[in-house]
Amino acid sequence: MSNEDFNTTLIRSTKTLRPFALHLTKSGSDADDLLQEMVYRALKCRDKLVEDSNMIAWLYTILKNLFINNYRRNKKIKELIDNNDFGTGYFASKNAINEGESNIECLKINTELDKLSGSYSKPLLMYFKGYKYEEIAEDLNLPIGTIKSRIHIARKLMQKKFQNEAKYIN
Question: I want to staple 121 with a disulfide (CB 3.0 to 4.6 A). Which of 63, 82, 116, 162 is the partner?
Answer without folding.
Answer: 116
